[in-house]
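User: Hey, my collaborator sent me this sequence without any context and asked if I could get a structure. I don't really work with proteins. Can you help?
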Amino acid sequence: MTLITESGQVQDLTLTPADKGSATVILKGQKKNDAAAPTKTEASTQYLEATLPVQEKMIRAMKMLVAGQFQEMEAEAMDRKEIDGLSFSHKKSYQVGPYKGHQYELHNTTETLFDVDETALYQMGDLALSVGQKVLKPQGYTIVWVIQR
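Assistant: No problem. I've predicted the 3D structure and written it out in structure-token form, which is a compact way to encode the shape of the chain:
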């Protein structure tokens, strides 16, 4: 499981089922030292140099995209296909190595809860897709991240 905090910190957790009582887990983040943090250009370079299978590269790239580690770029609004009850609005685009990353707001235009199905959001050219919330309240919205060719 991957947790991403509001401040953009990313933490991967491996959960192992066990026959034990419940326990409370408190995760405390540390403020990052700006001098030690990689720049957006360095982050992109690290991504390009990784010798990983393409699936692992896309997972790593998506984590970095959500954390804001890629250079924002000027790009035309990339239209997404229409889905009944949902509307997309393009917010930002990023250079993700040889690919493009896009941030969208996905709005529930209905008066009922909407269960978001990632497979319905996929369109030709998408390599990776991440949805902030799976269930949207009436008139609610979430952020959707997409990496495309």
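In plain terms: Residues 2 and 122 are 21 Å apart (CA to CA). You can pass these tokens on to your collaborator as they are.
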